[in-house]
Amino acid sequence: MSPNMSANSPPIRTCPSLFCNLHKTDHEFSRLSYWLVIAAFSIGCVMSYINKTTTTFLAAIAFTTTISEAQIPERMGDENAGTGHFGITALAASEYYGSDDNEIQVLPYLSLDNVKGFDFFGTALTYRAVDIGTGQGLGKWSLRAGPRIAYLPGRDSSDSPYLAGFEDIDGSFPIGGYAFGTIGPVGLRLDVGQDLFGSHDGLTVDGSIGTAYTTDKFGFQPSATVSWANNNFSDSFFGVTNDQSLISGLDAFNPGAGIYGYSVNTIAWYEFTKNYSVVLTGSYRWFTDDAADSPILNTSDGSRNGFLAGLSFVRKFDTNNW
Fold first, then answer.
1. Which domain holds residue 107?
2. In terms of Cα–Cα distance, which of 179, 176, 181, 174 is closest to 200?
3. pLDDT per residue over 163-185, tens digit each?
């Protein structure tokens, strides 16, 4: 869901001094960007593991995967095939599922758009094993599907005094698949992920619907998501065992499988030169059913709602020269 850069945009005339000093041509920059991408990816993974926050390097809209407090579906339109974006993002997000406390972080931004079949946005990496259709837009249809792996942050017992006696939940890498289809201006997406490494052993399913409006320089994409989880996931993030209840003072609670949240999401971008853009992302989630009834969410520092907001400055690069 990277910015929808237009091929008809005017050639770049000026650039920030930092980037002007780094390269003389786009071809030289693409080689440099390869190493910068590797560095950004490595830093993001390390920071996500250490911090266990809502997102690592961009999220919302993500938001992904997974994006944890946000499920921002991949953008509609594929004019950017074979390109990527990297830069810097400022993110504000809930500390963990059901937290009323928010964190602001400055992190690296990285996205890939159909680079040899791979897409990367937020914390999710997907591969287009199926990619068919007549295109995207009015009077067209498309369908793509394939494997997916994402990062889902965990939770530390030190994040809240009400979590005393709870075990830490490590960050996880749910493995599964996705399907993304468009019919005219409407996009539909389904993401499925199973934790296979023992963090919470949970299965999650996210279904999203969205649309998009774009011009040569501006794009706007609203969407809505419904999120479902199995018992293992719900027990880990929303449940309270008898032992945990004795230490924390919270009532024991055993949530079941089911829909645990609804969210509305948006991404907007403005391309102020051929290669440079500013990106705004946002997502707001309502926890529902058993999740909303969890004692964890109903403490003085808990919340039945979660949000994510991001402001990013990004540079487009061409991966065809790699």
1. 17-321
2. 174
3. 999 999 999 999 999 999 999 99
